[in-house]
Write a structure and sequence with these properties.
The complex is a heterodimer. By secondary structure, chain A is α/β, with parallel strands linked by helices. Chain A contains 15 helices and 11 strands. Classes of the chains: A alpha/beta, B alpha+beta. Chains A and B meet through helix 9 of A and loops of B. Chain B: Belongs to the GatB/GatE family. GatB subfamily.
Chain lengths: ~475, ~475
C-alpha cells in the first residue's frame, strides 16, 4: 500500500480497505528498513504517528471522517512541531523542541492527518543539493550517487522512495520545485502570503513560502486545501478566500494561453533538456492550449538580486540563534562575546556562515544603497516582467532546472555554480508568484521537470494544468528502479 | 570665553497598551521574571510578530497632540545588534518612515515667558528585556517581561539652551502623554526615561560642538542635575583647551557626576533594513480624524482656559493644569462651589500640603473632589468659617467620611462647626463673656482709644471658645458695639 497516492489512500480508508494504523505501521516499517539508503528523515515520530492513526480510526468508526482523516504524511524539519524535535537541518537547533506547532502543522493535525516525522533539509533551507544538512546529505532515490536537490531534498526523497505519499516543503528560491524536478515529483510553491509562515523557521522572510511535494497534482491540491488560508499570526499572510483546489482539477484547458519565455530556452540549456520540455508543451497544444513567446528581460538579474536580498534577511533572521536562550551553546564561554562567537561559529555550517556574512556586508552602512537598495529596485523590475507577461498569457512554462540531478559533491566546491541551479526558479520568489514543477520526461534515466508559473493566487489554474497533463501522460507514475 | 549650551532630548515613553506591540503578552509591571513573555517575546524560531493596532492609535494621538505631521505610511525596520536582552538579535523600530513627523511643544520658562521646542520625530519601537546581574553566582539572568513593550521615542531638535529648559521640556512631555492617557508616566518604573545630548560651543558659533549622550535619566530633577553636571564637566575641559570625546555617559545621582559608558568613536553599524515580517502601516485621513476626535483638552488649552475664563493667575493656572488628575480634581471642586479662585487656593494650599505630607498622589487622596466642593460651598454660604472648614477637611483626610458630599454635612453637624451668624445669639454669648470677665473689661476700658483694636483680640478668642461656629465678622461687630456701650 506504500505506492498509493494521498487521494488513493483517502479513498481506501473511506472504503475500509485498510485502517490508518495499518498503513501507518506499513510506512513506518518501510522507513526503518530503507531510509538508511536515502537519509530522508531526521526524526521519525513513531509513537505520535500511531497515536494519531488510532485516533483517526476511532474518528472514522464514529462516522466523523473527512478526506484527510488518517492519511499519513510528513513535515519538512523547518516547520515547528509541538513536542517533536525541529532542527532546521542545523547543529544550532539539534536539541530544539518547540512548544508550539507551525500553523500548517496545526492545520494538518486538525484535518486528522498522521505525521510520520520530520524530513531532512539543507541547513536553514540554504542549498540546492541537500548536502549542507548537519544530519548528513540526502540521496536521490533515482540514483543514490546523485543529489535529490535542495533544500526540501528530504521531502522529495521520502516521497520518491514511497516512504510517505506527500510531504510539506518550503521554497525560498526554488527549494520545492528543484528537488521535485530532480526526483520526478510534483512540487507546488503557492503565492507568497497564500499559506501562513507562522512556525516555519525563517530563512528569508520576504521570499519564504510553504508548499508541497507529492506524486500528483491531485495530491498537491488536497494538501493545499489544508494549508492555505489567512492566519492573523502572520502579518504577511493574505486574507482571501480559499477555493476548493480539487474541484477545478478536471476543467478543460482548451484555449489556455501558455507563455514561453525566450530567456528560458537559451543555448546554455542542453538540447536534451530542451527537447523534453518542448515535448511537454506539445502535449499541451494537443489538449487545445495555445503557445506564445513572451519575454522576461530581467531574468539574468534574478540570481544576483536573490543573493543580496536572501542573505540580508537571513543575517537578521538567524541572529536569534545566539546560544543565549535555546539551541546549541558552546562549552564554557568566557564572556558574552565569547558565547556568541563560539556558539555561532560552532553551531552554523559553512553555507549558512557564508550567507550571513554576505548579508551583513550588503546591509552595512557604506554598502546598503549599492547592494540592498539596488537589489530591491531590481526586484521590482523582475516583478514587472511577469506582470507584463501575464497581460498576454494565462500561464508561463519552461524548464524547472538547467540540468537533471547532479552528482553528490559535484558542485560543493563552487557555490556560484550551485547557485545557478536555481536560475529558472528564483525569479518567482522575488516576484511572489506561484509555481509548480511536474515531471515531464527523462534524460539519462533521470527525471526532468516542467515548471508552470501562474499569476498571483492562480494556484487553481496551475493545479488544473498539471493534473490534465498527468491525466494524458505517465511521467508522474514512473518510479526509481527498486522502489 | 562665553559658551552656549546645546541640548537635545530623546524621550522613551512606554505606551499604556494592555498587550505588547507584537504579541499578546501582558505589559503589566512587576510580575515574576519571564512570566509575561511568550514564544514571540522570547524570539523562538519560527515565530512572527503581529502589530498591536492600539499602539498605532496611541502614537497617532501623541502626534496630533504636538501638532505634528502624521505618517500615513510608516515602516518598521530591523536594527541589528547582539545583546542578551535583545531576544531576536535585532530591535524592531522605525527609521526612515516614522509614524510621527515634525511637531512642536511650548515650554514655560521661569520668567513666565514661553519657548517653542521643535520635535524632529517620534517613532514606534519595541522595548528590550533586562539583564539581571545579582543572584546568579557570577552569571547573568535575563528577564524578558519588558521585551516587546511598545515605546514611542520622541526626538527633539537641539533647541534647549540650559538644563532648566530641558527639565521643563521633559516635564511638559510627561504632562502631555499622561493627559492623553497613552503612558502612565511612572518614572520610578521606567515608564518614561530620556537620553540627554549635550554639547557646548563658543557663543555666536554656528556649528555644534562635540556632543555626549547621557543615557536613561529617569526623573525631572535628575535631567536638570545630570545636564548641569555634564555642562560643568565639558566646560572645564574646553576652558583648559581640551577636546570633548563623543561618547555615551551615565549619570550617577549619588555622586552627581556623569561617567563614560562606552565610546562612540567606532560607530555601531546597526544594518537597518525594512522588517520583512511586517507590512508597511498604511492609514488615511479618516483614521487620523477619528483619532483626533478622541483627543482630550490638553495642558496648554486647559491652562489658558483656567487663566482666561476663570481669572486665575498664570502661575496658578500652570500649576493646576500640569497634572491631569489634579486639574480634574480642581475643576470638579471649583464647579460645585462655583468659585475657581477659592478652589485654586484650597487645592494649592491644604490639598497639596496634604499630598506632600502623606507622599500620595491626588488619586489616593481621601478627600474627594466632591467633598472639597461641598466644603467650599459651605464656606461661601457662611455655614463654615475658615477654621471650621479646615477642621472638616482634616477629619476627612483622617478617613472620617465616606467620599460623599453628604458626609461633609454630617461632619459639620457632629463636630458642631456650623457657623453662628445670628447676631441675637451672638449678642447673648458676648454678654455672657463680658459678664464673666470683668477684669478684662476693665483693662480694655483703660486702654487708650487708638490701641483698643488690638485689645479686642482676647474677647474674640473667648467668644469663639464659648461657641466654635461663630461668624468672626459678626462677633467683631457685636463686640465693638457692646464694648462701646460700656
Amino acid at each position: 500500500m506504500h505506492n498509493k497516492t494521498i487521494a488513493e489512500i483517502s479513498r481506501d480508508l473511506a472504503a475500509g480497505e485498510y485502517s490508518s494504523v495499518e498503513i501507518t505501521e506499513n510506512l513506518l516499517s518501510r522507513i526503518k528498513q530503507t531510509d538508511n539508503r536515502y537519509n530522508s528523515f531526521i526524526t521519525v515520530s513513531e509513537e505520535q504517528a500511531l497515536a494519531q492513526a488510532k485516533a483517526a480510526d476511532a474518528r472514522r468508526a464514529a462516522g466523523n471522517a473527512d478526506a484527510w482523516t488518517g492519511v499519513p504524511m510528513a513535515h519538512k524539519d523547518i516547520f515547528c512541531t509541538n513536542g517533536v524535535l525541529t532542527t532546521c537541518g542545523s547543529k544550532m537547533l539539534s536539541n530544539f523542541v518547540a512548544p508550539y506547532d507551525a500553523t500548517i502543522v496545526e492545520n494538518f493535525n486538525n484535518a486528522g492527518a498522521v505525521s510520520l516525522g520530520k524530513l531532512n533539509m539543507d541547513e536553514f533551507a540554504m542549498g540546492s543539493s541537500n548536502e549542507s544538512s548537519f544530519f548528513g546529505a540526502v540521496k536521490n532515490p533515482w540514483d543514490t550517487d546523485r543529489v535529490p536537490g535542495g533544500s526540501s531534498g528530504g521531502s522529495a526523497a521520502a516521497v520518491a522512495a514511497q516512504l510517505v505519499p506527500g510531504a510539506t516543503a518550503s521554497d525560498t528560491g526554488g527549494s520545492i520545485r528543484q528537488p521535485a524536478a530532480f526526483c520526478g515529483l510534483t512540487g507546488l510553491k503557492p503565492t507568497y502570503g497564500r499559506v501562513s509562515r507562522w512556525g516555519m523557521i525563517a530563512y528569508a522572510s520576504s521570499l519564504d513560502q510553504a508548499g508541497t511535494i507529492t506524486r500528483t497534482a491531485e495530491d498537491s491540491a488536497m494538501m493545499l486545501n489544508v494549508m492555505a488560508g489567512f492566519d492573523a499570526k502572520d502579518s504577511t499572510c493574505v486574507d482571501r478566500e480559499v477555493p476548493d483546489y480539487t474541484a477545478t482539477l478536471n476543467n478543460s484547458i482548451e484555449g489556455l494561453t501558455i507563455g514561453l519565455p525566450k530567456e528560458y530556452f537559451r543555448s546554455d540549456l542542453s538540447a536534451e533538456m530542451q527537447q523534453q520540455v518542448r515535448n511537454a508543451i506539445a502535449e499541451y497544444e494537443k489538449m487545445g492550449a495555445r503557445v506564445k513567446e513572451v519575454s522576461l528581460p530581467n531574468t539574468h538579474l534574478a540570481i544576483p538580486t536573490y543573493y543580496i536580498i536572501a542573505p540580508a534577511e537571513c543575517s537578521a533572521n538567524l541572529s536569534r540563534m545566539d546560544g543565549v536562550r535555546f539551541g546549541y551553546r558552546c562549552e564554557n564561554p568566557q564572556d558574552i562575546n565569547d558565547l556568541y562567537k563560539r556558539s555561532r561559529g560552532e553551531g552554523f555550517g559553512i553555507e549558512v556562515k557564508r550567507r550571513i556574512m554576505v548579508g551583513a556586508y550588503a546591509l552595512s552602512a557604506g554598502f546598503y544603497d549599492a547592494y540592498y537598495k539596488k537589489a530591491q529596485q531590481v526586484r521590482r523590475l523582475i516583478k514587472n516582467d511577469f506582470v507584463n507577461a501575464f497581460n498576454e498569457v494565462d500561464i508561463i512554462m519552461g524548464p524547472t532546472t538547467p540540468t537533471p540531478a547532479f552528482k553528490c559533491g559535484e558542485k560543493t566546491a563552487d557555490p556560484v555554480d550551485m547557485y545557478l541551479e536555481d536560475i529558472f526558479t528564483i525569479a518567482l520568489n522575488l516576484a511572489g508568484l506561484p509555481g509548480m514543477s511536474i515531471s515531464c520526461g527523462q534524460v539519462n534515466n533521470l527525471p526532468v521537470g516542467l515548471q508552470l508559473i501562474g499569476n498571483y493566487f492562480d494556484e487553481g489554474r496551475l493545479l488544473n494544468a498539471a493534473h490534465k497533463f498527468q491525466q494524458s501522460t505517465d511521467w508522474h507514475l514512473k518510479t526509481p528502479a527498486g522502489i | 570665553m562665553e559658551w552656549e549650551v546645546v541640548i537635545g532630548l530623546e524621550i522613551h515613553a512606554q505606551l499604556a497598551t494592555k498587550s505588547k506591540i507584537f504579541s499578546g503578552s501582558s505589559t503589566a509591571y512587576g510580575a515574576d521574571a519571564n512570566t509575561q513573555a511568550c514564544a514571540i517575546d522570547l524570539g523562538l524560531p519560527g515565530v512572527l510578530p503581529a502589530f498591536n493596532e492600539e499602539a498605532l492609535r496611541m502614537a497617532v494621538k501623541f502626534g496630533l497632540a504636538i501638532d505634528a505631521e502624521i505618517g500615513l505610511k510608516s515602516v518598521f525596520d530591523r536594527k541589528n545588534y547582539f545583546y542578551p536582552d535583545s531576544p531576536k538579535g535585532y530591535q524592531t523600530t522605525q527609521l526612515h518612515h516614522p509614524i510621527v513627523g515634525i511637531g512642536h511643544i511650548d515650554i514655560e520658562l521661569e520668567d513666565g515667558s514661553s519657548k517653542r521646542i521643535n520635535v524632529t520625530r517620534a517613532h514606534l519601537e519595541e522595548d528590550a528585556g533586562k539583564s539581571v546581574h545579582e543572584g546568579f553566582n557570577g552569571m547573568s539572568g535575563i528577564d524578558l517581561n519588558r521585551a516587546g513593550t511598545p515605546l514611542i521615542e520622541i526626538v527633539s531638535e537641539p533647541e534647549m539652551r540650559n538644563a532648566k529648559e530641558a527639565a521643563a521640556y521633559f516635564r511638559k512631555m510627561h504632562s502631555i502623554v499622561t493627559y492623553l492617557g497613552i503612558c502612565d508616566g511612572d518614572l520610578s518604573q521606567g515608564s518614561m526615561r530620556c537620553d540627554c545630548n549635550v554639547s557646548l560651543r563658543p557663543k555666536g558659533q554656528e556649528e555644534f560642538g562635540t556632543r555626549t549622550e547621557i543615557k536613561n535619566v529617569n526623573s525631572f530633577r535628575n535631567v536638570e542635575r545630570a545636564i548641569d553636571a555634564e555642562i560643568a564637566r565639558q566646560m572645564d575641559i574646553l576652558e583648559d583647551g581640551g577636546k570633548i570625546i563623543q561618547e555615551t555617559r551615565l549619570y550617577d545621582a549619588d555622586k552627581n557626576e556623569t561617567r563614560a559608558m562606552r565610546s562612540k568613536e567606532v560607530a555601531n553599524d546597526y544594518r537597518y533594513f525594512p522588517c520583512p515580517d511586517l507590512l508597511p502601516v498604511i492609514i488615511d485621513d479618516n483614521y487620523v480624524e477619528a483619532v483626533r476626535a478622541t483627543l482630550p483638552e490638553l495642558p496648554d488649552a486647559k491652562r489658558a482656559r483656567f487663566a482666561h475664563a476663570h481669572g486665575l493667575s498664570a502661575i496658578d493656572a500652570a500649576v493646576l493644569a500640569a497634572n491631569r488628575e489634579l486639574a480634574h480634581y480642581f475643576e470638579t471642586a471649583a464647579k460645585i462651589a462655583n468659585d475657581y479662585k477659592l478652589a485654586a487656593n484650597w487645592v494649592q494650599g491644604d490639598v497639596s500640603a496634604t499630598l506632600n505630607r502623606l507622599e500620595i498622589s491626588i488619586g489616593e487622596m481621601a478627600v474627594s473632589a466632591e467633598q472639597l466642593g461641598r466644603i467650599l460651598q459651605l464656606i461661601k454660604d457662611n455655614t463654615l468659617n475658615n477654621g471650621g472648614a479646615k477642621e472638616v477637611f482634616n477629619a476627612l483626610v483622617e478617613g472620617k467620611g465616606d467620599g460623599s458630599a453628604e458626609s461633609v454635612d454630617k461632619l459639620v453637624d457632629s463636630l458642631g462647626l456650623k457657623q453662628v451668624s445670628d447676631s441675637g445669639a451672638i449678642e447673648a454669648i458676648v454678654a455672657e463673656v463680658l459678664a464673666a470677665n470683668p477684669k478684662l473689661v476693665e483693662g480694655y476700658l483703660a486702654t487708650p482709644e487708638d490701641k483698643r483694636a488690638k485689645a479686642i483680640g482676647p474677647f474674640i478668642g473667648l467668644v469663639r471658645k464659648a461657641a466654635k461656629g461663630v461668624n468672626p465678622q459678626v462677633v467683631m461687630d457685636v463686640l465693638q458695639k457692646k464694648l462701646s456701650e460700656l
